[in-house]
């Protein structure tokens, strides 16, 4: 591992960039004029493994960035790009049309997007054996990145640092948070780690699968026949997980999704009030798309790397960044990232959340009401399995309603908090909470980071 600090590199100033862009593309790209300070770079986290990060300093009219927290955002998949999807589709300053986002988290925090695991987004490996195959590698790679980042950006060492995540990113965030907590205690990383937030997170996959049937049945998306079919395959997934047959569990999980699709006329796994868009023509070979993993990859990673986002990232963004190697295309290795994690996919990490809670790390769980793939019932099921000694007290509490605006009477969320665990139920949101309900997502982030 390369833990020695390396030279810190900074991008050219925005005006020069604008000129470069105009000249090189021939197109007019209207970057907002009040662009805040941004920096980005690669860190070689292991031999042949290069991780890309992109930092935006908070832009708040009344506060210096040093008075606001630093939030790292981790996308799911595995293989979904934080610098692309999280940034342009969820919380960054610009949307994917490069128009300012009203609910950007940048008004209340500096934002660090990292394309993780290696091979995701603009991150890349030189050799096929360098992809991460398990959570331990994902976490140790991230420790190298964070050590380099905080060594190079001392101004962030004392600022409260939070990790926010989505989907599979939540599973990675849990593992990363625990390693970071240890590294800080050992003195190898200097940062003011203040909490981890797990959004619609893949903490206990089997608890999600087991709740799919009852959840869909309760909202008129399965009949008795369908419920029986879904419950049966869910039991098979449980059986495989209990026997430690994780690759088989991944395959059965895919089968469960197909059965749901057939019985619900194609419900969208990311928001039950909508339907799955028909699959767009794939670039990959037919053989791959017909394999069970190919099918899963297309369902769960493709939507994070849509064609329009890919054009943006591989077009104007790549030119703006200026440091992306020529043979590295954004999202080009995502498929391999996903395939290499096959054996890890269905493993639960409830025990890691327990370790975080016992260690005193602030843990927030937040979940969209309309998400199916990681439905709220499944989240509540694994929370009930925590061995954390304070859990009975957490369970005894009643939740409180939250409103995005002080004057509004429309309930946007419910929250329950005890000691270092908080749970947010986000209403009218699917899997991508900040994209679906930007106002309450921003408010939640401000609450979690103790700004409200
Ligand atoms: C913002 O904070 C940084 C770091 O503490 C400091 O160097 C800088 O001068 C501050 N800027 C303003 C405008 O106060
Ligand atoms: C971490 O941040 C909090 C809140 O700003 C501050 O009170 C505390 O001193 C910081 N701790 C360190 C070790 O920098
Ligand atoms: C955890 O959150 C509580 C408030 O909810 C806060 O008082 C405490 O300082 C936080 N702990 C850390 C380590 O940031």
TrEMBL record:
<dbReference type="Pfam" id="PF00450">
    <property type="entry name" value="Peptidase_S10"/>
</dbReference>
<dbReference type="GO" id="GO:0005576">
    <property type="term" value="C:extracellular region"/>
</dbReference>
<dbReference type="InterPro" id="IPR029058">
    <property type="entry name" value="AB_hydrolase_fold"/>
</dbReference>
<keyword id="KW-0732">Signal</keyword>
<comment type="function">
    <text>May be involved in vascular wall and kidney homeostasis.</text>
</comment>
<dbReference type="GO" id="GO:0006508">
    <property type="term" value="P:proteolysis"/>
</dbReference>
<dbReference type="InterPro" id="IPR018202">
    <property type="entry name" value="Ser_caboxypep_ser_AS"/>
</dbReference>
<keyword id="KW-0645">Protease</keyword>
<feature type="signal peptide">
    <location>
        <begin position="1"/>
        <end position="26"/>
    </location>
</feature>
<dbReference type="GO" id="GO:0004185">
    <property type="term" value="F:serine-type carboxypeptidase activity"/>
</dbReference>
<protein>
    <recommendedName>
        <fullName>Carboxypeptidase</fullName>
        <ecNumber>3.4.16.-</ecNumber>
    </recommendedName>
</protein>
<keyword id="KW-0121">Carboxypeptidase</keyword>
<comment type="similarity">
    <text>Belongs to the peptidase S10 family.</text>
</comment>
<keyword id="KW-0378">Hydrolase</keyword>
<keyword id="KW-0325">Glycoprotein</keyword>
<dbReference type="InterPro" id="IPR001563">
    <property type="entry name" value="Peptidase_S10"/>
</dbReference>
<keyword id="KW-0964">Secreted</keyword>
